[in-house]
Hints:
Layout: H1 5-12, E1 16-24, H2 31-44, E2 49-53, H3 61-64, E3 73-74, E4 78-79, E5 82-83, E6 86-90, H4 92-95, H5 105-117, E7 118-119, E8 123-129, H6 136-144, E9 148-154, H7 158-173, E10 178-186, H8 191-199, E11 203-208, H9 213-216, H10 220-223, H11 227-240, H12 242-250
Parallel strand pairs: 1-8, 1-9, 2-6, 2-8, 4-7, 9-10, 10-11
Antiparallel strand pairs: 3-4, 5-6
Amino acid sequence: MIDPRLSIVEKRLSEIKRVIAVSGSKGGVGKSTIASLLALLLSKKGHKVGLLDLDFFSPSQHIMLGTKKVSPKEDKGIIAPEIAGISFMSIIHFTGENPVLIRGNDVSNAIIELLAITRWPELDFLIIDMPPGIGDATLDILRLAGNAEFILVTTDSKLSLEGVKKLAIALKELNIPILGIIGNMSKRKDRAKEFAVSLGIDFLGMICYDEGLEDATGKRNKILKTLAAKQLEEIIRSGLIKDKWQSYEKNL
């Protein structure tokens, strides 16, 4: 039996030009930080941006954006509330600080439901903070958002690199576009780059360990002044959306 919500999900996502999923092999590699900074930087440059926190078991984007109490409005669905110019949706809007105790098919059902009820405005980018690794959420996004492109985030850790390798191989086998790999909290200059090259994947750039990032978390203006934000801005400018970025700046 076909789930009638699937056609609704397709309609909800139809006004979004690009879906970029930020993923990593394990928790703690900084994918949530990269996702929130990416959304903030793109919005700062005048793009219409949405941010979706799909890490149901450890949602953190509300902390990154510095907003814990947001009440979405209902109007033929749930309108994604706007935070700092970003349309933001998270399971946290419905669960508060309570843990989400679901597994298996219930995870897929929750993702479909969230995508079906969320009303996004017309967007240039929808940034998705993915849960780590390859699980139900990743497979569901591949099925539901057929145009999704992936950014893979890794540290220099052998465990992180090995996990990202498996994730990259799986995405390649499924013919899913991988925009590239970002080396985060890097201490060894070329390790992540050499790793990306060995997989035949573009190396987008490196973000050094930033001691000031922790204090800036939740402070939107301050976080955009961190070293991590500046280095990610250069990554975006140099390759991720180069043509669109330059076109926007010419019109300033």
